[in-house]
Specification:
By secondary structure, the chain is α/β, with parallel strands linked by helices. It is 31% helix and 23% strand.
């Protein structure tokens, strides 16, 4: 077996990214989609030349090896559980689940059935973040003692036509965007030992600014502004700013402070970008991982900025790992630890107390340029030219 057949449940915005990018990868072939709304699934199937199944039909299909769960976060646990009960490997969009207990139940079920569970984000496999990984591992900037990361903006109600779930329990900036940042930090520094946080909500309502519901008011049911501290088992202490209540700021997306220098890391929501390093001389050097295929621009975002977009890399790596009988990088233990960290940040903000993190995970294996190339089909990088879905 050199390729696994893949189905998708959930045909919203992000499904077009998976369907567009999957043909770049060697070990996966998406052949079917399903959605609770059959007309949505049929439209997506026509767009990409795959078949449309019902949800139950797809889970029971004999020709499907892996099912990708692209439903809303509140449905992730239930759908992933059904996928495993149906005898299929499961790969979920982030966050994997909304509670540690749900994740443990999935792990127990997957182990009992001999199945794999994987989860986005996979952006840490990108060229810039793997360059940051090799720089940290080399010891060039010394022992990491601290760091900062920030993702702060005014929210997504201006551009998303149906932003309701972002502002309800299971949403919020920590669970929605936090997986990108915390996953990248874990692959760079290892697991987190404890967290402390505070949270707030600037407005009880939001106004939709785009699409057929433009002007409609939606209720905010979860905090939209967090400031947190994360203590890593390595001893590093990293601050996290996560907010949808900020109109502008000058913070860098991610910085790591070592005893010999500082590393400036680009947005972990993306695969590419330049890494900057400042050593004791205070001279800043810009570095790029030009040999790594997951840094080659292949799309443009909604501001016409060229981006490297290889979402599906984590799914493809999981399929290859199943075939090769090795551990996949976007694995359940990593995703579960990240969920533990993120939900503990929320709990700390509610209780106004430190929260110890009970889970641990190994850092996922680095993804070298050669290993990334092996996941791709031996063709030139396709220019997708699709706006990057949020």
């Amino acid at each position: 077996m050199d390729k696994l057949k893949v189905g998708i449940i959930g045909c919203g915005n992000i499904s077009s990214t998976y369907l567009s990018l999957a043909p770049l990868f060697r070990a996966i072939d998406i052949i079917a989609v399903a959605d609770i709304d059959a007309t949505v699934a049929q439209a997506r199937a026509r767009e990409f030349g795959v078949r449309a199944d019902g949800v139950d039909e797809l889970i029971a299909a004999d020709d499907i090896d892996i099912i990708v769960n692209l439903t809303v976060p509140a449905a992730h646990y239930a759908i992933t559980r059904r996928i495993l009960e149906g005898g299929k490997h499961a790969y979920s969009e982030k966050p994997l689940v909304l509670s540690l207990d749900e994740g443990k139940q999935l792990r127990e079920l997957a182990q009992a059935r001999g199945l794999r569970v994987g989860s986005a984000p996979d952006t840490f496999l990108g060229a810039s973040h793997q360059l940051a990984r090799s720089t940290v591992d080399s010891g060039e900037i010394g022992n990491i003692v601290g760091g900062t990361c920030h993702f702060m903006n005014s929210g997504m109600e201006d551009w998303h036509p149906n932003p309701d779930f972002f502002f309800q329990p299971g949403g919020g900036p920590v669970l929605d965007m936090g997986p990108y940042y915390v996953t990248n930090l874990v692959q760079l520094l290892g697991p987190v030992r404890a967290v402390s946080a505070m949270g707030s909500t600037a407005s009880a309502t939001r106004i939709i600014g785009n699409g057929p519901r433009e002007g409609e008011s939606i209720t905010v049911g979860t905090p939209t502004n967090y400031q947190a501290l994360m203590e890593f088992c390595s001893g590093a202490i990293v601050t996290l700013g996560a907010s949808w209540d900020v109109s502008a700021h000058h913070h860098g997306t991610m910085e790591l402070y070592g005893t010999l220098g500082t590393l400036f890391i680009p947005d972990p929501n993306f695969f590419g970008g330049a890494v900057e390093i400042a050593l004791a001389s205070n001279e800043t050097e810009i570095r790029t991982n030009s040999d790594h295929p997951f840094g080659v621009p292949n799309t443009e975002d909604d501001r016409d900025i060229s981006r490297a977009n290889y979402r599906c890399a984590g799914l493809a790596d999981m399929a290859d790992a199943i075939i090769q009988q090795r551990q996949h990088r976007c694995n359940l233990d990593l995703a579960l630890h990240v969920v533990d960290v993120l939900t503990s940040i929320q709990s700390s903000a509610e209780s106004r107390q430190w929260v110890d993190i009970g889970t641990r995970c190994e850092r996922p294996a680095a993804c070298t340029a050669q290993q990334a190339q092996a996941l791709l089909l031996p063709t030139e990088i396709t220019d997708i030219r699709r706006n990057h879905p949020k």
